[in-house]
Amino acid sequence: MQRALFSQLGPRAEKGSPLAGLLLRRSRMDRGRVSENVLEKNKTLEAEKIYRILRVIHIVLVLLALILAAVLTVMVLLLPDLQEQNGQLKEMQASNEALREKNRILIKKVPESWIVHNGSLYYFSCVAKSWEDAERSCVSLGSHLTSVTSVSEQEFIYKKANGAGYWMGLNKLKSSDWRWTDGTPYNEKHTNNFWAPNEPNNLGDNERCVQFLKNSIRSWNDNSCFYPAMYICKWDCKASALCP
Ligand SMILES: [Ca+2]
């Protein structure tokens, strides 16, 4: 470039002349200004690049904030449903646990020689106890001393008892009227023919608990509640929803 300038100026700009020195300084100044301009331009481009990156980051952050707000809104709207479903799930778990407990009772009863009859399980004890101790034994097994609610049930039990004395749930311990310990209403009309002849006689004014005693449809006898006798527990299989 210097050489081209010297050639255009001719002999006046020969190397070493004052004019040549002036031109050389001017050329150097021009090149310096060009470098400054390039540097300034590069700085501007770099600043624009950083600005664009910051704008992209800003847009991304705004979008993330909007998405987060939308998710939170949906969660707030769904929260009552989730709470309701959680409540239903807890109820189902409680119901399932109750069924498991009943199943454990059933599994325990079967090997203990419980007998199934018309949707109920009956346990005929091999040991003799007072009426109240017998009832406590039945309760510990999840049942009560048996009630009798039909001719069919009466026939099933007296035939199985075969004339041996077995406590049932009928008693007058807490009332002047006969009551079943499992809460079954006492129906005098339907069970009147189940008493043995001349019973109940309340011998010695001390007979407030009832037992099977005769191998007959008329098998009931009132007896002292302290008398040790075998006993029959009944577990209502139908109410447990475990039996068909
Ligand atoms: Ca009697």
UniProtKB/TrEMBL annotation:
Domain C-type lectin: 117-234
InterPro entries on file: C-type_lectin-like, C-type_lectin-like/link_sf, C-type_lectin/snaclec_domain, C-type_lectin_CS, CD209-like_CTLD, CTDL_fold
The name this protein goes by in its record: C-type lectin domain-containing protein
Gene Ontology CC entries for this record: external side of plasma membrane
Parts of the chain that traverse the membrane: 56-79
UniProt keyword Transmembrane helix present: yes
PANTHER family xrefs: MANNOSE, PHOSPHOLIPASE, LECTIN RECEPTOR RELATED
CDD domains: CLECT_DC-SIGN_like (cd03590)
Alphabetized GO MF terms: carbohydrate binding; pattern recognition receptor activity
Keywords: Coiled coil, Disulfide bond, Lectin, Membrane, Transmembrane, Transmembrane helix
GO biological process: immune response
UniProt cross-references to Pfam families, sorted A to Z: Lectin_C
UniProt source species: Monodelphis domestica (Gray short-tailed opossum)
Stretches of the chain forming a coiled coil according to its record: 82-109
